[in-house]
Structures are given as C-alpha cells and as structure tokens.
Amino acid sequence: MSISTKSLGLHLGLLAVLFVLQFVLPAYHHGNIARIMVLASYAIGFNILFGYTGLLSLGHALFFAAGMYGMGLVVNQFGLPPFSALLVGLLVGGLVALALGLLALRTEGVAFMIVTLMFAQAGYLTVLYFGEYTRGDEGFVIQQAERVMWGIDLSDPTNRYFAALVIFGVSLLVTLKLVQTPFGKVLIAIRENEERARMLGYDVFLHKLAAVVLSGVISAFAGASYGLLFGYVGASFASVQYSIFPLLWVLLGGAGTVLGPFVGTLFMFYLIDLSSGITSAYMLIAGVTLVALTLFAPQGFVGELRKRVWRWLP
Amino acid sequence: MSLLSTRGLSKHFAGLTAVNDVDFDLPEGQIRALIGPNGAGKTTFVSMLCGRVELSSGVVMFEGRDISVLPAHKRIGLGLAYTFQITSVFGNLSVAENVALAARRRVKGAMVAQVVTEALGKVGLADRMEQNAADLSYGHQRLLEIAMGLAQAPKLLILDEPTQGLADSEISDFKALIRDLANSTTILLIEHNMNVVMELADFITVLDFGQVLAEGTPQDIRANAAVQAAYLGTV
Fold first, then answer.
1. Measured between alpha carbons, how far is B211 from B36 in angstroms, rounded to an integer?
2. Measuring CA to CA, which residue among A85, A71, A39 is closest to residue A232?
3. Which helix (H) or strand (E) holds B230?
4. Locate the ABC transporter domain: which residues (chain B) (predicted)?
5. Considering only residues 46 to 65 of chain B, which have any Cβ-Cβ distance to chain A shorter than 8 Å?
6. In chain A, which residues have their Cβ closer than 8 Å to the Cβ of B76?
7. How far is residue A137 from each of residues A65, A227, B212, B220, measured CA to CA in Å?
8. Which residue among B89, B90, B105 places its CB closest to the CB of A201?
9. Does A206 touch chain B (CB under 8 A)?
10. What stretch of H or E contains B27?
11. The B31-35 sheet, strands edge to edge
12. Given a cut of 90, is residue B211 above it in pLDDT?
C-alpha cells in the first residue's frame, strides 16, 4: 500500500469514526465534539501557516473573527441567507488576510509575531468601536430562522453535528491534499530553509503570501461556521485569547501534521472540561499538563507518533 | 561572449569593503576557480552574482543582460544555480523531495521523477531517495546539494566550497563528477583544497582583500609570486 493511500485511509478513517460517534455519543459530548470539529478547522487553518510554512502568527483571531463577523453582519443587517453569508465570511477573511499578509510579511520572526498581534488587536478594537452594528462585547445572536440552510435547520444538534463534520472534513482533506502538492512542498521547504528555497528560484514572498491567504480563508471558514452553527457572534472571538488557542492546539497536537490540530483541540477541550469538574483551580491542572507535554512530547501527540512509529504521517 | 561578467562590482558593509571594484569575465563552458585567503570576499562576491547579497555599486551581466537589480529567484530562473558553503538542505524532507524541489522549477509532471532519479544517480545517492535529508551523513548532504544543482540544469553552477568536510575518496568522486558536468555547464568554484583547484580549473581568479590579485591558468597562478605571498605560501 502506497504512503498516500495509507494516509488517505487514515484520515478518511477518522472522519468515519466521527460520523459513527454521532449515533452513540450522549448529548453533552455530542455537542462538544461538534464544537471541537469546528475549532479544529480553525486550528487546521492556523497550522498551514505555522506548522507547514513556519510563520508564527499571533493574530489569527483576526481571520476567525473576520469570517464570523463577515457572515454574521450580512445576516443581521441585510438578512442574507446562510450560504451566501458564509461565502461573504470567506471573502472577508481572504481580503483581510491578503491585506495583512502584504504588510506583515515585510517583517520576519519576532517582528512578524508582533505585527500580526497588533493587527489582531486593531481588529478587536474595531469590533468594539462599531458597537452600533456589532453590539461590542455583548455580541449578537443569529436567530434560529436565519440558520436554516437549504431547508436544513443548523440549530438542530444532529444537523449541526453533521455540518461540523462536513466543515472539518473539507478543511482536513484540503490540507491533506495541499501538503502533497508541489505548492505545499515549497511551503515546507520555506519552513525548513527559506534561503535555500529562494536560491532554488522560488518567489518566497509570493508563496508566503499565498499561505497567509489560504490560512486566513480556512480560519475565516471556521469562524463563519462557528457563528452559524452555534448562533452567536461576539467580540471575545476577536480577542487575543482566540489567537493563542490555535497555537496551543497545534503545538499540543503536533505542528506540521495534518491530524495534529484535531488531536490538540480535542485534548485541550477535554482537559479543561474534565479538570474543571474536579477543582475550581482547573487552569492549574491544565498548566501542569501543558508543561509536562512540552517537556516529554515537544513535537505534540501526532508529531511524536510520526517521529517514533509512523514515519509516513503527512 | 562571456556568460557572466561584472564591472566595478563592490560591496561595502558599514565601512568595511568586502569586495572592491571587481571586473570579472567568465566565458561559457569554463571551470573557473575562485580562490583567496579567508575573508578575501569570495562568498560575498558570488552572493552578489546570484542575488543573495545586494551590491553596493557596479554591474552584473548574465548572457549580455544586466541582472544587477534582479531578485535572487529571478536570477535562478535565468539559469544560475548556487550551492551553499554551509550544508543547506531541507532536513525534514526526503532526499528525493529535496531534489524534486530543485527540478520542478524547470520540468513538470512525470519528468520530475526522471530528473530526480538521474541527478541522484550521478552523485551516488539513488539508494537513499526516501531517507530524510537530515539523516544523511555530512558528506552525503554535500552530494545532495550538488544533486540539487544538477537537477536545475543551470547554465552556470556556482559551488561554494563543495569539498569542505569530504573524505579523500569522496573528493575524487567529486572531481570526476565536476569533469563530467563541465561538458554541459559552466562552473564557478570557490575552493580551498588546492589539489582540487589545480586539477579541475581551466582558469583561476585570486581574490585578496576584496580585489582581484591575479588571474590565469593553474600554471600561471602557481608561478605567481604575489599569489604565493598572499596565499599559497601560507598553506
């Protein structure tokens, strides 16, 4: 069996397991997994830039929120149907990413982190500033009636679960395909050795810009979907916390692996969920676990798996 | 006509003149060695040729075209290739993928695999295609670098100290490889190993303190008193 068949099998296998889980999970976990799948799509978008291209952005909440508000505002203000609104969210996310990429990619390393962080903060403040439309911190609800797409009510838990699975599946398979294309290989080459990639004749700036836009669009897709599936659009999703989350998820799961973002999101979600059931100082438990993981599995779960067992993991 | 030439090429780093007013002509098909003591400006000079370092003044011409202000990736597109002084491969990618990245700038589709196999065959790494480049020995990584250069099928291949750190047996393989390569491409070689230089080069340029100290055939250079004083005598 060739490597690409094996990896396709593995990823389709995960999607199949998630499909079956819908029928067996109790309601509480059922809702959690739906949420995790959408957030994991966000992490997948982040991972394209961080894990595969080697660019650490601390401002991805800007893209997540751009998608979410792009979708939410046209539903709320103009009553656009969900699917068109979703596309608007993607478009807004892509344009914001293009603009940010053109500016931020003039910098490198730490400066890139700071510039992306600052732009995301500017985005957050913009949401607050236009409180008349965005309702600021309080946010706004997308009514059930506005969440019916092609006759499917996305507020229904089962529909929502399947919609989340589709969103996650699309993000996962797009990334899986991407990292096997020549374009994806150039991104990895830039991560590994930017100067060498340039001296092979690749336009490094253009490739990075494309990576920022692609990463931004997938993040915006996740943000718009999140708003649509869970019916709420709020400024907290634009805050710095939501820029740090995908970094944590990806680091835990394994940067530069296709499955890592999902594994990391799943782990972090349940780590907080379970530890908060034990003690009110749950962040302490989460913190200690994170430190231990960084010490003993610095490449994340899937990264370590690849290093030790399955060398072929994409 | 020269394949590559420079006129008045200079590089200043905040008060330090690394390369000073160099006129240089490299005819097509030649193996040219660039030698000189440490700090003579060899790497800076070739870095200006391929666009890694911006020039301070002067002109670089390639096939009669002024490429002085072209970005590096465009110069590579015109047919220059550069292999790094410090081994510089994509560690977490397979050996084959390293070469494929070089090949895909030139060929597409099924041709890529063919070029990769051919290039790796020439340097003797065909049996290590699926290994991670980072797992190769140092000598093999240097050969991989050269295979990447081959896959580009450049008009001008610039090799920056390719034999550094190679064992004697690997060096003789390397010499055979370069001789074979010289039939199809022009080569500019920065090299410290005088045996390699004297055996391979058709013509030698000696840099010292950023300036051309002497140029000539290996015999001329060997006999040149100024070169001996500056360089050869200290070996």
1. 10
2. A71
3. helix B225-230
4. 4-234
5. 50, 52
6. 198-201
7. 13, 15, 68, 80
8. B105
9. no
10. strand B16-27
11. B80-83, B156-160, B186-190, B31-35, B203-208, B211-216
12. no
Q: Which residues of A touch B89 (CB under 8 A)?
A: 193, 196
The domain of B111 spans: 94-152
Q: Would you call A255 an interface residue with chain B, using a CB distance cutoff of 8 Å?
A: no
Domain count of the fold of chain B: 1
Q: What is the pLDDT at residue A1?
A: 57
CA–CA gap between residue B182 and residue A82 (Å, rounded)? 64
Using a CB–CB cutoff of 8 Å, tell me whether A200 touches chain B.
Answer: yes
Cβ neighbours of A184 in B, within 8 Å: none
pLDDT given at position A88: 95
Please give the mean pLDDT across all residues of chain B: 87
Residue B101 lies in a domain: yes
In this complex, is the C-beta atom of A192 within 8 Å of any C-beta atom belonging to chain B?
yes
Does residue B235 surpass a pLDDT of 50? no
Residue B138, in any domain of the structure = yes
Q: Which of B91, B92, B101 sits opposite A200 (nearest CB)?
A: B101
Stretch A199-212: mean pLDDT:
94
Whole-prediction pTM value?
Answer: 0.85
Q: What is the pLDDT at residue A118? A: 94
Q: Tokens 């610039």 — which residue?
A: B158
H or E element: which one contains A306? helix A300-308
Strand partners, B4: B26, B62
Residue owning tokens 């530890």: A275
How crowded is the C-beta side of B103, counted as CA atoms within 13 Å?
24
Tell me the nearest-neighbour CA distance from B107 into chain A, angstroms.
12
Residue A308 contacts B, CB cutoff 8 Å = no
In the predicted model, is pLDDT for residue A141 greater than 60? yes
Q: Is residue B36 part of a domain?
A: no
> Residue B1: what pLDDT?
72
Does B135 contact chain A (CB < 8 Å)?
no
Whole-angstrom Cα distance, residue A134 to residue A128? 7
ipTM above 0.90, yes or no: no
**Whether the Cβ atoms of residue A282 and residue A272 lie closer than 8 Å to each other:** yes
Examine residue B135 and state whether it is found in any structural domain, yes or no.
Answer: yes
Instruction: Give which of A247, A236, A184 is closest to A210, Cα–Cα.
Output: A184
pLDDT in tens, B5-17: 999 888 988 888 8
In this prediction, residue B158 carries a pLDDT of 92
List of domains in chain A = 3-308 (1.10.3470)
Q: Give the Cα separation of A15 and A213 in Å (integer).
A: 26
CB distance B62 to B4 below 8 Å: yes
